[in-house]
Amino acid sequence: MDDNGLSTLSLLSDVQQLSLWQVRDALLDRLRSYGACMVAFSGGVDSAVVLKAAYLALGKRTLAATAISPSLASRERQAAMELARLIGTEHALIETQEMEQPAYVRNANDRCYHCKTELYVQMTRLADERQVPHLVNGTNADDLGDYRPGLRAGQEHFVHSPLAELGLGKRRVRELAALWRLPVWDKPASPCLSSRIVYGLQVTPDRLRRIDQAESFLIDQGFPVVRVRHLADDTARVEVPVDRLPELVRSPLREKTTAFMQQIGFRRIVIDVEGFRSGNLNT
After folding, report:
1. Greatest extent of the chain over all pairs of C-alpha atoms, in Å
2. What does the DSSP 8-state code read for residue 211?
3. Domain boundaries 9-179, corresponding CATH code
4. Contacts for 154 with CB less than 8 Å, ≥ 6 apart
5. Is the peptide bond before 252 cis (omega within 30 degrees of 0)?
6. pLDDT digit string (tens) for 156-178?
């Protein structure tokens, strides 16, 4: 593979034997070699570690870029802004237009490819304006074994993935985040709101709004890990960790949740007794 490819498989067996300090130094060296970079920053732990490393390695030659669209949860936007401020980097908010792309709205299983393509097109334009030579994302080595059509978009736009390139999986990424005292070190994954809509059901601003409001409601009720899956016929399928299910179905929260979700536009609410599973709509 070329220098931009994920040519790290030979490192995967070795990186687990390295000390955290060696891992840190390897990541800083990799980012330092870019000279300057723009980081695709979602506010999750992976992109936060890359952004922190880039700032340590490159200082003000680092720029964070966050896509702003209806598919970004309102809480996630605010959290990303606060985290970029904490790290100390300049932070650009880029309005992406994936909702205008029929291939994205159609919501086939390659939806993520079209979303990431739009992001990287917009980032490339900004990078050209700012004369930033390299785009970087937070893809880690564990992501390479999952179904992620967005990875192809990164390769097509020559985006570096330093975590994956060094063979760093989620465990080592969280260790680095804890080392750097990033508040997201133990944050659960939080993919875009569109990932909650069952494949084949069109992505619309109204459906994204419902999901955002429903999840925000449940988070406010004390369920920090939650997914509201938007199924056909305006059905919401709610997932929380299995050990929290008794709380969700107990009165008066059950009635309160039902009333709120019907108020925002869901006609039917079902609770998944198997509990929360990341990427559940991919299966």
Report:
1. 58
2. H
3. 3.40.50.620
4. 116, 120, 137, 139, 161
5. yes
6. 999 999 999 999 999 999 999 99
